[in-house]
Structures are given as C-alpha cells and as structure tokens.
C-alpha cells in the first residue's frame, strides 16, 4: 500500500509569506514533525521556493537522490535544525527516507517520520497540480 501526498499552500500571515504544507495520509507532516502551536510552531517552505513560477519544483522526484527541506521551527532552522528528507524515484515509486528532524535543546530528541513510499503517478500528478495552482501569487 502506498502513502498518499497532498500539497497545500497556506496564505501569507503577519510574519511569513505563503508557505507549503505536506499532508501525508491525511496528516500534516510539518505539524507532526516540527510542532503545530505555541512558541515552537513550525512552518513549511516558502511557496515561492517550493513551487517556483520560473521552473520545475524541487519537489519533483528523479532517479538522483537529493535532500529536500520540508519545514523548520518558527525560531528558524539555524536554531533547532530543519525538517528535511531524501527524495528519490525508483521506477514507479517515489521514496522519502533518511529524515532530518529539528529539535530544541530543552526537549527530547524527536522521532523521525517513517520512510514513505508514494505511487509515482499520484506523486507526479500532485506536484503538477500544485505547480499549476498559482492562487497564492495574488498575495505576493
């Protein structure tokens, strides 16, 4: 059974421009791994970086493994680290593995998310849909 990816763009707020969130199997991956509320609330990557208008998204999976930043704590990645994953395509499977998870010195080390496996067709279609949906540019 494959995992299911949904890419959502959150509108800009008072402190940050529009950002991308990744929902996997119905759960907000950034919120689960980085935290969703309080002083250590996390944020996803800025939409202009994750879904650039001038070229393909870094979310696209290829046969060459590369590290993809998915989020960071509100205090910035320089402080507590970032949420990052190794993305690679293996034929009709896109794999997210080898997680890097942020954590604060005053909390126990977090557990990384499990290795995820997406059907390449569903994954590619979701990335293409997110790249084509430019509603957020109205706010930029």
Could you give a quick summary of the protein structure above?
It contains 4 helices and 8 strands; from the N terminus they run E-E-E-H-E-H-E-H-E-E-E-H. It has 140 residues and is an alpha+beta fold.
Helix content: 10-25%
SS-derived structural category? alpha+beta
So what's the overall shape?
Answer: globular
Spans of 5+ residues with little confidence (pLDDT < 50)? none
How many beta-strand segments? 8
Compute the gyration radius: what is it? 15 Å
Major sheet size, sense and barrel closure: 5 strands, antiparallel
Name some characteristics of this structure.
8 strands, alpha+beta, 31% strand, 140 residues, five-stranded antiparallel β-sheet, three-stranded antiparallel β-sheet, 19% helix
Explain this structure.
By secondary structure, the chain is an alpha+beta fold. 19% of the residues lie in helices and 31% in strands. The protein contains four helices and eight strands. The strands form two sheets. A five-stranded antiparallel beta sheet has the order 4-5-6-7-8. A three-stranded antiparallel beta sheet has the order 1-2-3.
What is the element layout, followed by pairings?
Layout: E1 5-10, E2 19-24, E3 27-28, H1 29-34, E4 42-43, H2 47-50, E5 66-73, H3 77-80, E6 83-90, E7 93-100, E8 116-119, H4 120-132
Antiparallel strand pairs: 1-2, 2-3, 4-5, 5-6, 6-7, 7-8
């Amino acid at each position: 059974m494959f995992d299911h990816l949904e890419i959502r763009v959150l509108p800009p707020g008072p402190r940050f421009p529009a950002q991308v969130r990744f929902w996997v199997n119905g759960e907000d991956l950034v919120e689960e791994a980085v935290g969703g509320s309080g002083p250590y609330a996390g944020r996803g990557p800025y939409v202009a970086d994750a879904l650039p208008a001038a070229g393909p998204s870094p979310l696209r999976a290829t046969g060459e493994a590369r590290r993809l930043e998915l989020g960071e704590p509100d205090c910035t990645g320089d402080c507590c680290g970032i949420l990052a994953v190794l993305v690679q395509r293996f034929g009709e499977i896109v794999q997210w593995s080898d997680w890097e998870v942020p954590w604060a010195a005053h909390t126990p080390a977090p557990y990384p998310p499990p290795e995820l496996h997406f059907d390449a067709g569903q994954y590619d279609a979701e990335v293409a849909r997110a790249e084509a949906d430019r509603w957020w540019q109205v706010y930029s």
